[in-house]
Amino acid sequence: MGIIKSPRIQSIDILRGLVMVIMALDHVRDYFHKGALVSDPTNLDTTTPELFLTRFITHFCAPVFVFLAGTAAFLYGRNKSKEHLFKFLFTRGIWLIVVEIVIMNFLWWFDISYGFINLQVIWAIGLCMVILSILVFLPPKVLLVIGLLLIFGHNLLDGIQLSGNNPLAVLWYILHQSNFIQLGDRWIGILYPILPWVGVIVLGYCFGRLYQPDFKAAVRRQWLIWLGIGSLVLFFLLRSANIYGDMAAWSVQKDIVYSIISFFNVTKYPPSLLFLLVTLGPAFLFLLAVENIKNKFTDFLLVYGRVPFFYYVLHILIIHLAAVAGLLITGDDWTLMILDAAAMTSGELSGYGYSLWITYPVWVGVVALLYPLCLWYMKYKANNRDKWWLSYL
Predict the structure, then answer these.
(1) Omega prior to 270 cis, within 30 of 0
(2) What percent helix, strand, coil does the chain show, rounded to 5?
(3) pTM for the whole thing?
(4) How far apart are CA 143 and CA 199, in angstroms?
(5) Which of 77, 112, 219, 361 has its CA 20 to 30 A from that of 85?
(6) Which band of pLDDT confidence, cut at 50, 70 and 90, is reported for residue 164?
(7) How far apart are CA 37 and CA 347, in angstroms?
(8) Residue 247 pLDDT > 70, yes or no?
(9) What order of strands is seen across the sheet that includes strand 116-119?
(10) How far is 228 from 281, CA to CA, in rounded Å?
(11) How far apart are CA 318 and CA 320, in angstroms?
């Protein structure tokens, strides 16, 4: 398979492509696995090792996606003025927020009343980009300090828990406490509080300096080794001690398998320090491993990694339509897939779903179906770089 030559950095696109493929597994599980819409796969009382692992491997997606959004911002702006970069990040951030609220919420739920608005990763990236558009005017060392303080220090705020729909509480939900709020008949889910995510995108922006043309490859590889191994060593030290870094401590369970599950069962909403260490650490090592590798598999991942937004929007639509088709084929009520807050809290979805043996083949089928569409769009973007609007898609 021939990949169009591009000034983009292939290892970064390959990593992004990998997490995009893995991400589809989590979303297929959401729509296809039995009980996924009404239960938590990380609940030690109800999960199985296979289900927990299926969920855990998808934890890598959001941190890597947000981190690389920061890296991409640096690489985009390295030869442009700060004013130009500010305008690009600010407008793109606002665009992503609108996409999350208007487009993605419809694709997720097929509910034209927008009875449930879930503010997820696209919203978080958009808001982080708006904030980053202002922060880029700061000196690099100040940015690095800000990023590290937010990631390493935000768990000090775990004890602050608010309730209600008053403005202060809503602001705190947006900043650090994942929660749901009710406005009349409409529910709003704030699952991605942004304080730690701002830290992730800022550090991703700083990380982009390692990929400047004049940065020595040997030095970059050394940094990737230290960042990868250092993150994982720090994770194991902090997690073993149960001192700091995650609001949910691990504990010995009924057997060694569930004790291991408890150990790796770190908090995503908001992402704890330990969650970020155990997900970003392997990402650094992956970048090191694929820096000089080119084969059919990396070319395959490259396609998804170069059109992530296009892929993200399409994959939710296709997965949701596939779930509707599954109900039609089995003769069940397809309107179960028109989801709203009432449907998810009434218990009518408790019996819906299939085994993991069905979930995984559907995932493979969705990824395969998206490949030719993503390949076409990747080539279209590469051949039409003069079209400014393509940078927003």
Answers:
(1) yes
(2) 70, 5, 25
(3) 0.95
(4) 9
(5) 219
(6) very high
(7) 10
(8) yes
(9) 116-119, 186-190, 179-183
(10) 4
(11) 5
Per-position b or e across 366-393, b if 16+ CB within 10 A of its CB: bbeebeebbbebbbebeeeeeeeeeeee
CA separation (Å) from 206 to 224, 285, 312?
A: 13, 18, 25
CA angle 320, 324, 325 (to 5 degrees): 115
Give Rg (Cα) of the chain: 21
Tens digits of per-residue pLDDT, 21-31? 999 999 999 99
Query: Which SS3 state, helix, strand or coil, does residue 335 take?
Result: helix
Which of the 8 DSSP states describes residue 39?
Answer: S
What letter would DSSP give residue 355? -
Quote the CA–CA distance of 339 and 328 in Å, as a whole number.
16
Would you list the domain boundaries of the chain? 10-392
Helix (H) / strand (E) containing 259: helix 256-264
Give residue 337's pLDDT.
84
Q: If you write DSSP's letter for every residue of 136-173 in order, what string do you get? A: TTS-HHHHHHHHHHHHHHGGGGTT----SSSHHHHHHH
Q: Are strands 116-119 and 186-190 parallel, antiparallel or unpaired?
A: parallel
CB 211 within 8 A of CB 220: yes
